[in-house]
Amino acid sequence: MRSLFLFLLLLNILYALWQLQAASVRPDSVLPAQELGGVEQVPAASAGSLAETAPIARSEIVEEAPPAALCITLGVFAERREAEQLLQRLLALDVQAGLIEDDVVGSTDYWLVMPVSGGSVDALARLSLLQEQGIESFVITRGPLAGNISLGVFSRLDYAEARQAQLLADGNDVRVESVDKMRSQYLVQVQPAARRLVDQALLGRLRNDFPALQHQYQACSPVAKLGELP
Asked: Superkingdom of this entry's organism (predicted)?
């Protein structure tokens, strides 16, 4: 009986020691989250900032516009009549095409201009004085130089400057103004859908009737209503 009592007492002591040892080991056995498996956790604040920057990165992506369709332009014609003849030929072959009219600088004139600031009365008075001196002149009535007096129009700048020097020497206040003379040129534009129909064989046949015909591929331009001529 005494042996049983001692055995139970020893068993309780051992159990108490085991409890104390388990309590002292438990806090140290829990590793920090960042040391588990070598995986580093992202703080909550950092994750939030990444979520905020994602829309910004997406907004910086710019979609490129598709390349513009290319047309074939045929020409260039100084006369509208020739361009219309070519257009009729193409329409007869079911080639979708249209007419383009461009205004380009044909040449440049150089005007000797005496500025007038006092209106038409001052212009007529100055004109009368110039004509009394035997200087050919007239009042400009149209364009950006209207209201001033012209003392000559020249096709070359050096001629205009030579005459200007003479007039300045005589005490006349004149300046040289360049004026572009516009002219129209005409092109026939073949639409992208019909571009495959305009092959080298067709171009060769067209050049028999239009020897100076040139063709090039370029971005399509607005044209007159396709298939219709004024």
From this structure: Bacteria
